């Protein structure tokens, strides 16, 4: 944890990828104490939502799916624009 100045607070927004709501509340309050100002509702069920986007992005005609070996984590999917694509014209709405 970095140093906090007096009066600074922490406001979490959205999902915190821990095992369950109890772990979210215990962990954040232990680490942040009275600096904690806002917490999400303890929702953890979306912690893997990014994985659900892999097949969506993989079928997009302007996105290239690349598998990269990440040290300590194994193979992970990454995506990049198709070579030569003007990214100003990229329409992710086509990925649906």
Describe the structure concisely for a colleague.
With 96 residues, the chain is an alpha+beta fold. It contains 3 helices and 4 strands.
Q: Please, could you describe this protein's structure?
A:
The protein is α+β, with helices and mostly antiparallel strands. The protein has 2 domains: 47 residues, no CATH class; 47 residues, no CATH class. The protein contains 3 helices and 4 strands. The strands form 2 sheets. A two-stranded parallel sheet has the order 1-2. Strands 3-4 form a two-stranded antiparallel ribbon. Helix 1 links the parallel strand 1 and strand 2. The N and C termini lie far apart (39 Å). The mean pLDDT is 78.
Topology:
Blueprint: E1 10-11, H1 21-32, E2 36-38, H2 49-52, H3 54-58, E3 63-70, E4 74-81
Parallel strand pairs: 1-2
Antiparallel strand pairs: 3-4
Query: Strand sequence of the main sheet, in spatial order?
Result: 1-2
- Mean pLDDT across all amino acids: 78
> Radius of gyration, rounded?
19 Å
Low-confidence stretches: none
Oligomeric state as shown: single chain
Structural class: alpha+beta
């Amino acid at each position: 944890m970095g140093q906090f100045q007096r009066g600074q607070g922490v406001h979490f927004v959205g999902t915190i990828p821990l095992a369950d709501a109890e772990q979210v509340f215990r962990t954040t309050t232990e680490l942040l104490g009275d600096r904690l100002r806002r917490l999400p509702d303890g929702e953890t069920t979306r912690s893997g939502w990014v994985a659900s986007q892999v097949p969506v992005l993989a079928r997009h005609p302007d996105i290239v799916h690349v598998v990269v070996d990440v040290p300590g984590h194994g193979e992970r999917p990454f995506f990049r624009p198709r070579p030569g694509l003007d990214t100003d014209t990229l329409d992710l709405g086509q990925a649906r």
